[in-house]
Amino acid sequence: MTLALMTERKPRRPKSAAVPVPFRRCIVTRESLPKPEMIRFVVDPSGVLTPDLAARLPGRGLWLTAQRDIVETARTKRLFGRAARRSVTIPEALADRLEAMLAKRCTGLLGLANRAGQLVAGFSQVRDWLRSGKAAILVIAADSLGRDAKELERIGRDLQTVRALTTQEMGSAIGRERIVHMAIAPGRLAGALEREAKRLAGFRAV
User: Fold this and answer.
1) What's the domain count of the chain?
2) Helix (H, G, I), strand (E, B) or coil at 183
3) Which site among 19, 36, 153, 184 is 20 to 30 Å from 76 CA-CA?
4) What is the model's pLDDT at position 11?
């Protein structure tokens, strides 16, 4: 008689089941927030504080709410060293450095979306995507105050709008000098851009 070999399989997670979002506590406010909305820091072996925007570096994480004033409070009150329980060297202009790093992550995502055919730029193209339901996120330059932007926001009033980047930053992301309006198709890149832009907005007056 032949015996069938049974392989134990782990039950698959239903596609509709939401994956729980982990929370972390800010060392300044003591408030617990979802990890994607915060900024993680680690202290390297030489004692230098290192931003870990992707939250992947080894070591104990020090978490902050993604806001310029919170970072400044942690720096001036020496809360990084207190939380790490050791002497910590803090890079100069830490908040400015974080702003630049977050802006680079946002423009990098725009570039990826453009190369993947998931982005359009320019008023007419963005308007067409909004009207046809192809867009998940509307991106409008933070330094734009024109009527066109208000018209696009009216058409895409049910969509998430990102206003954290300048016209020059948006243009550089796709190899142009300046861009005022963009639309991003639904998908992983749109979700990542929404999260990074939210963190960036905490460092900019938008």
Assistant:
1) 2
2) strand
3) 36
4) 46
Ordered DSSP codes for 98-138: HHHHHHHHHHHHHHHHHHTT-EEESHHHHHHHHHHT--SEE
In a domain, 172, yes or no: yes
Partners of 97 in the beta sheet? Answer: none
Structure tokens, 115? 């190369």
Whether the CB-CB separation of 156 and 163 falls below 8 Å is answered with no
Rg of the chain on CA atoms, in Å: 21
Nearest to 190 by CA among 100, 99, 96, 113: 113
**Tokens representing residue 21 in the block:** 């979002």
Spatial contact of 41 and 62, defined as CB atoms under 8 Å apart? yes
CB atoms within 10 A of CB 179: 23
In a domain, 10, yes or no: no
Give me the torsion for CA of 69, 70, 72, 77, rounded to 10°.
130
Rounded to two decimals, the pTM is: 0.88
Give the DSSP per-residue string, 51-79: EETTS-SSS--EEEES-HHHHHHHHHTTH
For residue 5, tell me if it sits in a domain: no
Q: Which of 4-13, 55-64, 107-116 has the lowest mean pLDDT?
A: 4-13
